[in-house]
Amino acid sequence: MQQFDVDFLHENLKRIPLISATHIYQSVASTNETARRLAKHGAPGGTLVLADQQTGGRGRLGRTWHSPAGKGLWFSLLLRPQRHENAWGLLPMVLSEVLVVTLRELYGHAFAVKWPNDVLFQNRKLSGILCESATAGDALEMIVAGIGINVNQSADEFPEELRASAVSLREVLGGETDRTALLLALLRAISDRLEPVLAGEQELHLQRWREFCPDFGKRVEISAGNRRISGIFRQVSVLGEIIIEQEHGEPAVVSCGEATFQQR
Ligand code: BT5
Predict the structure, then answer these.
(1) What does 14-52 look like in DSSP terms, one character per residue?
(2) Could you tell which of 32, 65, 93 is best to mutate to test the pocket of ligand 1, judged by most ligand atoms within 8 Å of the CB?
């Protein structure tokens, strides 16, 4: 089992403008939880929390994220937005697109985005993103962006219930990946991209996201709380919402939920 090269990481993280502080753990319940705790104690925007293992990794809507030791990238970024507050709804889509571009550049495989927060390979989930925010009065005080990427698991190391739906880079590439180098490449790309998107390039960003999304024009069912909406996936908005054309022709705009796309 490969360990993180902690000295090399610290040395190289210094050169990534987005990152202001780094906390690396052997094991935590959830890097998002740890980042929120650090934030309460005054941690600055740009704080990175990385763990080799999560014992209570979290997905959206109270779900769990399987995060075994030594196998993946489980990390969170604490961001303290000072402006452009309405661009932050796009964050999960910005991150998934940056992940896809970087992974495609590094490995040349057809990784794809899925609305709102996933990176897939051949319809199986390689990565999930969980963005959580806290407000103070009307202002957005902080966002914790948590990213989980399956790197070195073999197929049989996934729990039974995930085997059909999850995938690791090891399965895609047929060999192990150096997690330290991958993390640095991803953080460099996130750091480069975040600022321009937040400074007003949302439309440009959406164009890129669309390029990597194979689901436009497909039938989709979205469950959001106890609402179920179905129709044809037509568009995404600059706020990160999905726009679908319902049976009777009316558009429905949904900001979060679980989307199931019908495969052709
Ligand atoms: C997500 O939720 O996809 C967000 C996952 C975010 C994980 C990161 S790791 C670092 C940071 N700290 C945390 O505690 N979380 C973040 P969602 O869309 O709700 O998907 C969750 C569902 O994905 C689960 O219900 C499972 O079906 C499936 N799943 C769980 N673990 C998985 C894995 N390792 N690979 C692929 N699918 C998984």
Answers:
(1) TT-TT--EEEEEEEES-HHHHHHHHHHTTPPTTEEEEEE
(2) 65
